[in-house]
Structure formats: structure tokens, C-alpha cells
Amino acid sequence: MIGVIGGGIAGLTAAHTAQSRGHEVGVFESDTQVGGRFAPVRTASDAVLPRQPPGLSTAGAASQALARTLGVELDAHAARTGYYHDGVVYPVDRRRELLAFPPLGLRDTSYFRSLVDDGGVPPFTVPDHTLDEPEALADVTARSFVTEHATESLYEQAIEPLLSARFGDAPDRVSASWLVNRVIRQRTGSTEVVEPRSLVDALARSIGRDRLHTDCRVTAVGTRRGAVDHLVTIEDGARTEHDVDAVIFDTPPQRLARLTGDDWGGQTAATTTVCVGLDEPLLSIDRVTVVDETPIGRLVALPGPTEEVTQIIYAIVADESADRETESQVRHGIESLFPAFDPGTIRWSAVHTETVSVPSVGYSDHIIPDDGPALSGGFYAGAASRERYADHSLDATIRTGQAVGKSVAGRSW
Ligand SMILES: Cc1cc2nc3c(=O)[nH]c(=O)nc-3n(C[C@H](O)[C@H](O)[C@H](O)COP(=O)(O)OP(=O)(O)OC[C@H]3O[C@@H](n4cnc5c(N)ncnc54)[C@H](O)[C@@H]3O)c2cc1C
Questions:
Q1: What GO molecular function terms would the record report (predicted)?
Q2: Which 3 state secondary structure label does DSSP give 147?
Q3: Backbone torsion region of residue 62, taken as left when φ is above 0, otherwise alpha when ψ lies between -120 and 50, otherwise beta
Q4: Number of CB atoms found within 10 A of residue 189's CB
């Protein structure tokens, strides 16, 4: 059997790929449901939501093709993006909207447009070769890249807030590779908001529920003569051993290091997402990056799931403490950003913390190869793999899961 540790989208895709090539698979997931970042969470009002806002993920060719293979349709719709500054949310999808965004002067507006849209005004054209190979910029900071090809003020007013919202308090260390990957995604038009739950459900159905072990944490990977031999899990408080021929890790790199004893020197950042259900909509823009100094870096709005809750807001804070204090800090943060906001419209809230690997300069030294953990029979499809380190899209996740699933299936066990 091929054991997959972690039932996020990468692990499920790898399991599905290996299984469709004739291998027996078993997915071991510590949570009560598979899906990882997009596992459904039941709120106080019984609405079922993804833990992280799908508004941050895009669907490109790989996600669409996998969805077609599985016979599901991805629920995608175009998102409106904007920046919050000094009490106002400015939409920035169209050129004339950008002109109304005060922190950017006319020159920066042109640069910004040409950064996000090929049809924009030169001279901030991202050099062609960087689009072919974003990893070549692994050692260049996003700051120096934008400053060299456009202006420092564009970086400070429009790019740095994006990086801070995503990676916390060290935005100046983030590599230009991440920015270029994002630009490429926008240019290839894969910018819809996607609800990946249909994909998670279809993958789970196709693999077969009996092969998905939920509430089942892998605590050790047993070896025999230097090769993977079994997984040790804790299931209902009981220790169980599962024989395996090979293992695919879909775990964050720091967990992989704990399981295999390898060192991993990459940088991580923690973000807390506070999700509030409102009975009156607060935002008319789907994704809002906050430029001003506040604990809230980003707000993502989704349509309400029930009649009582007409809008859900995910507020993302660069902080690792998913506690009541963060929750009340966010409530107060929303009130201070939007003085007309009535906290009485909040029907429920939920809080969740995530640790992400940061593609900071020099990240390529910390890439974990696909057949990577120094363990015979061990494979890696997690966030520190080559394809995904600086490309945080759903597509890169799916491509990696497929490549690793194929590679494992191509060997004889
Ligand atoms: C807010 C947000 C942030 C994102 N950040 C990133 C990012 O930083 N990097 C990136 O590549 N993409 C990112 N994405 C894009 C993409 O959506 C994700 O890459 C994708 O969902 C991650 O899937 P995954 O399977 O790799 O990991 P996850 O969804 O994190 O799934 C991993 C699973 O492994 C399980 N697990 C971990 N350890 C164990 C264990 N010992 N035993 C059993 N189970 C275990 C966890 O419970 C989890 O369910 C992000 C998307 C959103 C919405």
C-alpha cells in the first residue's frame, strides 16, 4: 500500500493519481475531515464553510482538467479586488478605478497596471525570461525587483501591503519569484474565485471513503533496512501500525522534519483567520488588502450561506494566536476600519490559525525534492516542494500531487 500522510488537496490528488495507476492507497488525516485548508468547518449557525477563504485561490488549467476527469464543475466566479485606505475601499480592477486610488500617482498607476495586465502601459514590463522561470528570481527580493522595474512608492503603497497580509512582518524578505508567479496567474486569466469543496469531495469519492482514515494522526514513520516500512498512527487514542511500501508526505515542511528527523531550515509565518457571519453585508468588493497600519491585513467576502447570514467576512491577521483575544482584536479592527459597522450584525465567528512557508530570498536552498525526504520510499508533495514553494495556487498544488502520484506509481514496490 502507498500511505499518504495528510488529506489536503495535494495528498488527495497524489492518492487519486497513484490509485488510478493501479496502486492500493491509504490516506491518513489527523483532522476529522479531509480537505486540509479547505476542509469544511461547521459554524454555530450550522453553515458549512471552508476553513480558509476560497477567495484566495484561483483555478487554472490543471484544476479545470482534474475537475473534468472527476466529472465535477468548479464553482468559479470572477472576484472584485480592492485596497482599503483611510476609510475607503478602492476597487482596483479597472484602469480608471486605479486612477482614483490616492496613494498611487499617475506614474505608479501605469506601472501597476502593466504589472497586473499585459495591456498596460510600459515601462514596468516584467522581463520575459522571468515569466518562463520565476525560480531564477529566488535570490532577488520583491522590493528590489519592483523598485528596479518600476518605483519604490509602487512597492510601498501596493505590493508591500499584499506581502504583509500574506507573510506577516517580514515583507521585505519575500522573493520576487512569488510576485512573478502571481503576475503570471493574473495574466493567464486564472483569477476566478473558486470553491474547491466540490473538488475535495470528488477526490474523496473517487479514492473511496474506506481508504480515507480521518481523525488519524501519523506520529512516526517506521523503517526497515533504511526504507519506509510502516506508519504509526493514533486513532481513537489507540496506537496502530499500518504496513506501507511507500509514503507520500502532504505535511507542512516543519512536520515532515519532525516525522523523518531531517532538518528543514526554511522560514515560516503564521496567520490567523477570523471568520464572521454577518446579517448585513459589509463589503461590495470580494478581496480587500488593507494598506493602513492595522492588525487586519486582508478581508475576503463571500456570499452568506443562509438567509440569516447574508455575508461572510474572513479577516486575515499576521499573528499565530487563534484565541479569543485575536477574535476581539479583529472585531475591534473591523469597527475601526468601518466606523458605520454595527457589531450587532455579527451572528457568529470562528477562528483558525495556519502556518505557511515563506518564499523568502534564498528559499531554493530549502526546497524539498519530490522524492525528497532522505528516506527510501519517501516522497513529498507539500508546500516546500519545488513547484509550490513560491507558487501558492491551487493549480501548483494539483500539478505537484499529480507528479508525485505518477512518480510513486511508476516504481515497482
Ligand atoms: C489562505 C490560504 C493560504 C494558502 N497558503 C498556501 C501556502 O502557504 N503554500 C501553498 O503551497 N499553497 C497555499 N495556498 C494554496 C492552496 O490552496 C494550498 O496550497 C492547498 O490547499 C494546500 O493543500 P495541501 O494538501 O498541500 O495542504 P493542507 O491543505 O495544509 O493539508 C495538509 C493536511 O495534512 C494533515 N496533516 C498534517 N500532519 C499530519 C499528520 N502527522 N498526520 C495526519 N495528517 C496530517 C493536515 O491536517 C492537513 O489536513 C493557500 C490557500 C489559501 C486559501
A1: oxidoreductase activity
A2: helix
A3: alpha
A4: 10
3-state DSSP of 154-179 = HHHHHHHHHHHHHHCCCHHHEEHHHH
173 lines ligand 1 (CB under 6 A): no
Q: Are residues 303 and 316 in the same domain?
A: yes
CATH of the domain at 400: 3.50.50.60
Which residue range forms the structural domain that includes residue 153?
90-190
94 shares a domain with 186: yes
Q: What is the mean pLDDT of residues 50-61?
A: 70
The pTM of the full predicted model, rounded to 2 decimals, is: 0.92
30 CB near ligand 1 (under 6 Å): yes
Average pLDDT in the chain: 87
Q: How far apart are the CA of 213 and the centre of ligand 1, in A?
A: 17
How far, in Å, from the CA of 294 to the mean position of ligand 1?
Answer: 26
129-177 pLDDT per residue, tens:
777 788 899 999 999 998 988 889 889 988 999 898 888 878 999 999 9
Q: Indicate which atom in ligand 1 lies nearest the CA of residue 271.
A: 1
